[in-house]
Amino acid sequence: MKRNVVIAALTAAALIGGGTATALATTTGDDDGGTARQTDVRVSDDDGVRDDSADRDDDGRARAADDVTAADAIAAALRATPGTAVSAELDDEDDGDDGDRAVWEADVLTGGGTWQSVRIDPGTGEVLGSHTEDEDDTAEVRAALKGTSVDAAEAARAVAGKGTVTAVELDEDGRTKGWEVETHTPGKGEQDWRVDLRTGKVTLDHSHDSDDSDDDSDADDSDADDD
To answer: 216: helix, coil or strand?
Structure first.
């Protein structure tokens, strides 16, 4: 019985060209007339390893925050460590027991005056662990939050409509005290917002733009001095 399968040459061509052949229709038959069938041929790239980068979002942090939001992470942290949440950030860890992956890190000021950094899984909301931190601005934080009505979770929820919240932090040192919230939006990238501690009003934070302008001005002045 004689069979003709035209497949090896086209497969080799795909390998030489560095491309990937996903399917190839071939005809097989014997001397008795046989039947036609379709044969799938899959050829990987040069190193045999599939590149998943094209399947990933531009910002993996934003994608992870879609499962467990900043407000969710803060609530989980406070259940584990009662107190006042002062910040929450989705960090890409590159060491520790959690390996190289993103986790929420929430800083909580307890009623006893100690600081706890609580780690939360962004996929499940599970508390992964916590440790005590040394902070020297406890008095400033308490003074800034005294008499306020908007906490960190509420600030995160207030900005959620602007994009995916990846960080919220109390700014107790600025001229106008408030919550600083970072969002990531497809097509817009990172944006910074401020949330009023008493009214919850959300405004776009242009302070970073101002810093960039100052840097440009300094550079211009330097060039002028060189002339």
So the answer is: helix
Q: Which two tokens stand for residue 161?
A: 């409509």
Contacting residues for 23 by C-beta, under 8 A, at least 6 apart: 38, 40, 41, 42
Question: pTM for the whole thing?
Answer: 0.64
Alpha carbon of residue 97 to chain centroid: 19
204, containing H or E segment: strand 202-204
Distant-in-sequence, close-in-space partners of 221: CB < 8 Å, separation ≥ 6: none
Q: Which of 19, 81, 11 is nearest to 39 (CA)?
A: 11
3-state helix vs strand vs coil in the chain, percent to 5: 30, 25, 45
Q: Flag whether pLDDT at 141 surpasses 60.
A: yes
pLDDT digits (tens, 9 = 90+) for 75-107: 999 999 999 999 999 987 644 455 567 899 999
